[in-house]
Amino acid sequence: MRKIFTVLALGFFAFYWAVTFLFTMPDNYINLSLYKQNQMFQLALYQKWSFFAPPPNFNERLYYEFKKKGDSSVQVFEAIEPICKAKQRKTPFNSREDLLDYVLSGSMNNISDQMFELQQDFKYENGLKGIEKIDSSQHADIRKIVQKSYGFNTLKNYAMHVARANRLDPQQYDVRIMLTRIPIPKFAERFKKAEKKEELYFISEYFNSQPSNQKI
Amino acid sequence: MKRLTTYLQDKNHFSIYLSLFRLFICFHLLKDIVNTWGSLDLLYGTDTFISHPPTIISEILGIPSDVLFANHKIIFAVYIGVILMFLFGIGRNFTALILFLMFELIQRMNHLVLNGGDNLLKFLLLYFIFADSFKYFTLFKRGETGRPSPIRNMLSNLAVYSICFHLCLAYLWSAFYKIHADTWFNGAATYYTFQIERFKGTSWNTDLARNGLFVTLSTYGTVFFEIFFPVLIWFKQTKKLFIIGGIIMHIFIYVFMMIYDFEIIFMMCYGFFFKDADFVRWYQKLSSRFTFVRTLKTQLA
After folding, report:
1. Are the beta carbons of B119 and A46 separated by less than 8 Å?
2. Which residues pair with A66 in a beta bridge?
3. A7-27 pLDDT, tens per residue?
């Protein structure tokens, strides 16, 4: 009985590590051939070990543009930079700032990842038809799909906090979200005092701000 | 094969560090709860601004995820209870199983705030289900008659080797992905990582990032460490060098990139590369040094 259990345990140990090794490695012919099994593995034992590879070569900004319903005057507020500064100022006792940073940045990353995947899908479909670029209607479709995502909803809900923090009555304003990137100068140009060019990569439609009891 | 099974079943080779690591895990999880206590409603409450996807685990059990979020305080109260039971060794490996399931559930309730350290910790808790980490620091001593079970020893030793393999796997694939990225390949990656505002831990980051020598050495140093660690950590001649190197690297990231738990968890795993015999030898060396000092004082007086 002990021998049987020993063989089973060692066999399972070897199998577990073979499967883990296979499904954690970069995409290749073998693990892509077992795509369904890989998805099941990731569902139960998700793991990702590509830390900062590659490292982002930009810093991100999250803008909330509040347009007053009566006179269409606009006020714009940025949300990420103050959190990052507070996080550095209070380190290592910066749990709350750290949490806010991870939630907002994680939501922004989800949006940019989703946009990238959708753009790749449209490029592939267009390629089959001999079309090179994504047209404006496809860009609009990407925006509509992103605006239904959990990441976008999180950023949308956070607009209430930004409004309250800046003493705006949410009922009087429509809001839209703008996500931008500020490239970090290339290593070879690190001593050049070049102007930081901000690149807009997502702009949402205007949505109604609704007051809520949301906790921040 | 026979030598392998004899080695695995003869005794629990890692009982000391397993017990210590059990305490570490419990204090680490309790510390996390203390740190996030004021933000629990923010993260899990029904009034939060965070839009949560379903956890899937609860859906499989027929419980909508909304119910979990509505009762998150009860879940956390149970979670704290399970951690305390595990801390004191109550319920042994069954408690370890419950702790793993609860940890997985809470991770899925807010995946946005997780990092690589949480990812590795999930697997550490999984392996602890099979480990005998209860030889020391438990509230109630289990009455042990005769020799410990060979099967229990084998499962415990395999659990520890799984922890070691997983750490090696993390470093190995991290190195693979790094080599594939131009900035790491060309020795410039830490210039970018030090300038990401989210992870800018000090005001010195910018100056360090502009120093070409520092950037090149730190970039290639990280890559070489991660490539060679999975192999050279197993050899006596290079083990200590890699452990010291790893500690330096992780402390650097802790200070300069404000990534805390990740670094602590990875460093704490290094202890599993030493067996009980190593800890006993160090303890005896340390004791003899203090004995020498005491004897010297007596003689001088």
Report:
1. yes
2. A75, A175
3. 999 999 999 999 999 999 999
Measure CB to CB from residue B174 to each of A10, A53, A96 and give the nearest one: A53
Residues of A in contact with B149 (CB under 8 A): none
Which residues, 6+ apart, have CB-to-CB distance to A149 below 8 Å? A110, A111, A114
Q: In terms of CA atoms, which chain A residue is nearest residue B196?
A: A59
Return the residue of A nearest to B57 by Cα. A44
DSSP annotation of B134:
-
Cβ contact B39–A13 (<8 Å): no
Distance from C-alpha of B276 to C-alpha of B267, rounded to nearest angstrom: 18
pTM: 0.90
Q: Give dist(CA B189, CA B172) in Å, integer.
A: 18
Q: Which residue of A has its CA nearest to B122?
A: A45
3-state secondary structure at position B56: coil
Q: What is the ipTM of this complex?
A: 0.89
Cis bond upstream, residue B150 (ω within 30): no
Amino acid A66 reads F
CB B138 within 8 A of CB B88: yes
Can you read off the two tokens belonging to residue B6? 């004899």
Residues in chain B within 8 Å Cβ distance of A13: 158, 162
Chain segment A65-95, per-residue pLDDT in tens: 999 988 889 999 999 999 999 999 998 899 8
- Could you read off the pLDDT of B206-252 as tens digits, one per residue? 999 999 999 999 999 999 999 999 999 999 999 999 999 999 999 99
Tell me which of A47, A84, A94, A102 to substitute to probe the interface with B (most B C-beta atoms closer than 10 Å): A47
